[in-house]
Amino acid sequence: MKKSKNSSRLSEFNMTVIQRKNIDSSVARDIHISLRKYAWTPFRVGILTNFDFSPSFLKRYRRYINAKIGLPDVKVNIESIYSLGGENQGTPCIRISVLKTFIDEKIICECWLFGLSSSIEDKLHENEVNAPLLLMRGQKNIFENLKNLLQSMFSTPIHQMAPNMKSLVFMCVKKNPSKNIVFYLAKEKQQLVFHMNGDTLAGIVEAISDKSVSTDHFDEESEFYERIYAHVKCTLHLNLEVWQVKAIKSSDFCVDEEGKVKMMSYNVFETIIPELIDIAETRISAGLERI
């Protein structure tokens, strides 16, 4: 199949960007080929770069997303900004906002695409091509599903949905300048909240009961990991089909003298967390198809 002119330009732009970051050309070529099955070309550009984009590129980028979503009455805004918090504070990134007025309520869907952190760039120099693939694992499915989620949300009024699916609704994306919170679903009194933190994780899926716990309370690493463990562990007892979670071995955690979880092994990030995302997204997609 013949590539479009725009697609070719984006691919060329992507390669130019990687080379401008002084990454070895052979590594850049491997990354470019590997990422083709993980993300759309423009998002690949967003994830692999670490500087502001020109207005002309962002304008073309906006048209691309609008075409993918296919909802002319949905306002999509794309801008290049600096991260306001976290390890990426001060780092140039792309912010994508989708705005829609739905039943007299403005729904804001916001996604942030960060450039690579210095630690990831170091791994790229060491020819560890898989490093960014884990980093962007959640990005792939989120943007593939964004169109379906938006269409399901905007094309069917809530009161017309099947009674058994009424509680499974794509509500909105929580705005928080210091966290990459991508989207939020509610099912009865329980919430499924997808957290994307591109600094260190591909994604964290939390199952929260009727008492919501915000990641804003994660002030220290020990508490952060302890809460991850608590939420993942509690999913084993929740009455939700979405969660079929493997038991987590105690050896995956480093416990300090006070008994607090201080850190998580890389193995947990690489296997358990992405698996949670896959399970949840599969079930959520299946649910939306039934609406």
Automatic annotation (TrEMBL):
InterPro entries for this protein: CENP-L
GO cellular component, one term: nucleus
One matching Pfam family: CENP-L
Location in or out of the cell: Chromosome, Centromere; Nucleus
Main location: nucleus
Coiled coil (UniProt feature): none
Keywords for the protein's UniProt record, in alphabetical order: Centromere, Chromosome, Nucleus
UniProt record similarity statement: Belongs to the CENP-L/IML3 family.
Name listed for the protein in its UniProt record: Centromere protein L
Origin organism lineage: Eukaryota, Metazoa, Ecdysozoa, Arthropoda, Crustacea
